[in-house]
Design a protein that fits this description.
Elements: H1 6-23, H2 28-49, H3 66-84, H4 102-122, H5 128-155
Helix pairs in contact: 2-4, 2-5, 3-4, 3-5
């Protein structure tokens, strides 16, 4: 994962800032927190909804399975939480073989999201200039994989949770 995409980061910061201005009272920190929560909510819904008997589905043999994508996205969330706490961190890929069932993968994702959310809430407003990059990079990363997971759904004749009619 390339975290040195400064131009993209600036575009995202400006986009977040304009969103904040349009919404009035929302700070950049609240905007990042909201975007982080939203993409993770969507991916967690997919992880819970996708049939366990299809968790090993791959679009192509050389690509990650649905389950491996879920664990890979979780690796990004772990990275952001550690960086957000000020830890010296590098991207460490979580081995999906350590999580053998759908329930284990969903539990890992839920725990990791909760940990990252707690970290996000604990970051003081004045530290956001130092901590925004790992969060923006991981939001972008999760968004890319969200799109990939949508294709896994569609290739299996299924409608992703976010695309279903709201009741």
């Amino acid at each position: 994962m390339n975290l040195s995409r400064l131009p993209l980061g600036l575009v995202l910061v400006f986009a977040l800032a304009s969103t904040c201005l349009a919404q009035g009272s929302q700070s950049p920190a609240d905007s990042v927190r909201g975007n982080f929560a939203d993409i993770n909510r969507k991916i967690l819904a997919m992880a819970k909804d996708f049939p366990e008997d299809k968790y090993d589905y791959r679009l192509k043999p050389e690509m990650r399975s649905f389950a491996e994508v879920i664990v890979h996205v979780t690796s990004g969330i772990v990275y952001a939480a550690k960086a957000g706490r000020g830890e010296k961190v590098k991207w460490d890929e979580i081995d999906p073989k350590g999580y053998t069932t759908k329930a284990a993968k969903v539990a890992l994702l839920e725990k990791t999201i909760a940990d990252a959310d707690a970290t996000l809430k604990a970051i003081p407003e004045d530290r956001w200039a130092k901590t925004v990059q790992p969060w923006l990079a991981v939001i972008e990363h999760a968004g890319e994989h969200y799109g990939q997971l949508v294709v896994y759904y569609r290739n299996n004749g299924m409608v992703p949770p976010e695309s279903r009619p709201k009741k």
